[in-house]
Amino acid sequence: MAEGLDVTALGAWVREFARLIADHQDELTRLDAAIGDADHGTNMHRGMSAVVAALDGTPPADPAALLKQVGMTLISKVGGASGPLYGTLFLRMAGAAGTGEMDAATYARALRAGLDGVVARGKAEPGDKTMVDALGPACDALDAGVAADESLAEALRRSAAAARQGRDTTVPMLARKGRASYLGERSIGHQDPGATSTALLLDAAVTALAGGDEG
Questions:
Q1: Lower CB density within 10 Å: C or N end of the chain?
Q2: CB-based burial of residue 164 (10 Å sphere; 0-12 exposed, 13-18 middle, 19+ buried)?
């Protein structure tokens, strides 16, 4: 698995994520209306639009700089929990990216560092009905792909499929973190919006980095 991810490739990933967020903005808001503040779609769309504008205005020099720029923009532009959590994800990825192009193993380590940052920031564990329930399985699947010496495309598809499965598992869960936890038993039966947007992040990686459809 020798494929390298340069700043252009990672920029394409971020832009594809922004496109998917725009396409799914209403869905994310509808999901959040059931168990949250009804603003996840709006907040993420505003944040990712600002990210794309920042990339257009000041093109970063390398993958680490790009990931840091994305993280800082999200923290400054997105309200609620989404900004700090997604911002931390990208900032931690930047810290683990090293210098120059990222190979698949480095990308996997960076995504794992992002997950660790989200867990530390949100104090969430698997089963709490949060984005961790999609991001954790995605990291596990990506690590498994790297360990099996799969191609980058194969590993990313495996990771995206795991994220979607993790998203789906949030439906029957009882929320234990965030505003959704205030609903108690009423949170059961609703798909978590954060896990849903996280699955879109991994779908975007397939489209932009693996050169194929995420489905």
A1: C
A2: buried
Q: Report which of 131, 101, 102, 127 is spatially closest to residue 117, judged by C-alpha positions.
A: 131
Cα–Cα distance measured from residue 39 to residue 92, given in angstroms and rounded to the nearest whole number = 25
Angle in degrees, 0-180, between the axes of helices 193-209 and 152-169, rounded to the nearest 10: 170
pLDDT tens digits in sequence order for the chain, 215 residues long: 346 899 999 999 999 999 999 999 999 999 988 878 889 999 999 999 999 999 999 889 999 999 999 999 999 998 788 899 999 999 999 999 988 899 999 999 999 999 999 999 999 999 989 999 999 999 999 999 999 999 889 999 999 999 999 999 999 887 877 766 656 677 788 899 999 999 999 999 999 998 755 44
Nearest Cα to Cα of residue 130 among 21, 20, 32: 32
Distance CA 197, CA 99 (A): 28
E-assigned strand segments in the chain: 4-5, 102-103
What are the tokens at 182?
Answer: 């205030």
**Contact yes or no for 28/40 (Cβ under 8 A):** yes
Residue 191 near residue 163 (C-beta atoms within 8 A): no
Half-sphere exposure of 39 (CA within 13 A, CB side): 11
List beta partners, residue 5. Answer: 102
HSE-CB for 165 with a 13 A CA cutoff: 12
